[in-house]
Each structure stands twice: as C-alpha cells, then as structure tokens.
Amino acid sequence: MERIPGPDPVAAGSELARALHSGPFHLALRAALAVRGLPLHRVQHHLADRGVKVGVTSLSYWQQGVRRPRRAESLRAVGALEEVLRLPAGSLLRLLAEGDGGQPAGGRRGAGERPAARSYRSLVVGAAVLEGLLAEMESPADGGLHTVGHHESVRIGADRRLVGRSSQHVVRAHRDGVDRYVAIHHGDPGCDPGRVAVLAGENCRTGRVRWQRETGVVVAELLFDARLRAGDTYVFGYGFEDGTGGPSSEHVRGFSFAGGLYVLQVRFDAQALPVRCRRFAQATAAGVRGARRDLTLSGLHHSVHIVEQEVRPGLVGIDWDWD
C-alpha cells in the first residue's frame, strides 16, 4: 500500500523532545503520535474510553496546525491526549498557553536543512488527512500486500504541470483473502482533487474514492479480479490524471515498509525542459534531504529515472529546477 512512511524511532524521539520543549503545539502533537505509532482512529478510541469525545477530523486539524483546541472540552481532550500518548502532564497544554503556535526562533531550521515545500506540505500535512480517509475505508496498515516490483511513470506537460502518472505494480499477499489495493495521490499545490481522474488498468477496477480539497489528497480503492491467498502474486495497473495543480517541481514516493524494486521515470514535454534534475531520499517527510545525485535528461524522450533495488521505509524521489 502506498502509505506515508513512519519516522525513524530514534529521530522521532529526538524530534518529540525538541517539540515538547520549544513547540509549537501541532508539531509536538504530531511528533508524539509518530513516536507512539497510533493512527488517529485509535487515538479517538482511547479518548472515548476516557469519556472524551473528539472527532478524527479535529485531531487531524490539530496536528496539522490548521486549528488549535481552545474550548473547554477541547482543552480537556488535550489533557487526555497527554495521558494516551504517555507525555508529561501539562506538556501539551503549556504549549497551547504560550501563544498561537508561531515558530519560535530557537526552532527554526537552518537554510541547509529546509525540506522542499511541496514535500513538507503534501506528506506531513497530508498525512493527518490521509489517516482519516483510510480510516473511513477501514484500510489496514499494509493492506496484506508486499510490493515485489513497482514501475511508476510521471508525465509533466508543456505548462510545467503534472499531467498524470501511471503505475505497473506487482505484489505478493502475505495473508489470505486480500482482494484490493488502496492507491494514494498527492496533488501539487492548487490541485483540485475533485477533478482528478482515477484510472483502473489491467486486472483491477475502481472501487471507493475519497478526497480532501485543502490538501489535494485522493485515496482510491482498486478492486482485484481475484481473491488472493497467502503467497500469491498479482500484477495490476492504475493511474491518476491530474493537470489541476500549479507548476510541478518534484515527485515523491513514500514507503511505510521495506519492499522490492521501485522504478520512477519522469518525462517532460519538449516545450518545457528543466535545467537540472536530482534524485533524493529522506528518512521522514519533515527530515533533511540526503543522498542527492544529479540525473541526466535523455535527449530523445526528455526523461530521467531512478532504480531502487530494495526500498526501505522513508521517502525517495526526483526533483527538478525550471530556471
């Protein structure tokens, strides 16, 4: 399943300690959730056991920084969150009391540590929304599938926008009864997810589709033509047609679990060619990009590609400069 990757435990623990000390509130909450490994619907369940009712959407907005808990019942929920997430009593409430969550001077990133804007927006902010959408679909963490091979092709148009992307996917079931795959699309800033088309290719058909406008996240259920048994392999294809966002400057793939071969190819229109393309990797969506390598644009088909033999949890992708 295409999931936003979980953080490295050591890095996540260090990030949590920093966030609890310096804030802001939403980063501390998000880091605590990452360290504990609790999806939002499970947090909601634990809060309900304590007599506190709060929606998954509200929890999502709190950890995005879109909204801050202010009302008495919301502050009570934050106190219960500290207990559920095994945080020091009052640690989150203190951050709320310190102001409206502006980034403190001590918490700013250095210029060399800045993650790319679209990656941070769509993979960190979108992660909270994604949890809610997947919970609606009752989608398990890994879908019961292991990726054997994945070839993804991305098309960038003459207007520098993402036209669409297609995938040829080979998976192996590690439990009986698997009959679907949940694919995720993150549009570029300005994307209208209501106009993104889901294309079911060979050996599958489109099931439920959910999306959230503010983040440009689309979640699509792809139903298999057969019910798999543990050990069975399956080949299927799918894609997304977009063209609704602003100029594109990267394509990022997140992996929650280790997997097999991943090939990413980005093809550009001859009328709009980038001046530089690079391969990169990140341990977490909010982390620093490393393992950067320049890629050579092919002269005939105007494309670049990367081949990852055995993917690891984290992020990998290609970014490019237009000017």
How would you describe the overall organization of this protein?
There is one protein chain. The chain is an alpha+beta fold and 323 residues long. The chain folds into two domains: 9-114, 434 Repressor (Amino-terminal Domain) (Orthogonal Bundle), CATH 1.10.260; 140-321, Immunoglobulin-like (Sandwich). The chain contains seven helices and 13 strands. It has a six-stranded mixed beta sheet with strand order 4-7-2-1-9-12, with no helix packed on it. β1 and β2 (162-173) form a beta hairpin. The longest helix has 20 residues, at 117-136. The radius of gyration is 20 Å and the shape is globular. Residues 1-12 and 99-125 have low confidence and may be disordered.
Briefly, what is this?
The chain has 323 residues and is an alpha+beta fold. It has helices at 9-22, 25-36, 40-49, 56-64, 72-84, 91-97, 117-136, and strands at 145-156, 162-173, 178-186, 197-200, 204-212, 217-228, 233-241, 250-255, 261-268, 276-282, 290-295, 303-308, 314-321.
Task: Name the descriptors.
434 Repressor (Amino-terminal Domain), Immunoglobulin-like, four-stranded antiparallel sheet, 26% helix, 33% strand, globular
What is the fold's blueprint, element by element?
Layout: H1 9-22, H2 25-36, H3 40-49, H4 56-64, H5 72-84, H6 91-97, H7 117-136, E1 145-156, E2 162-173, E3 178-186, E4 197-200, E5 204-212, E6 217-228, E7 233-241, E8 250-255, E9 261-268, E10 276-282, E11 290-295, E12 303-308, E13 314-321
Parallel strand pairs: 1-9
Antiparallel strand pairs: 1-2, 2-7, 3-6, 4-7, 5-6, 8-13, 9-12, 10-11, 10-13
Helix pairs in contact: 1-2, 4-7
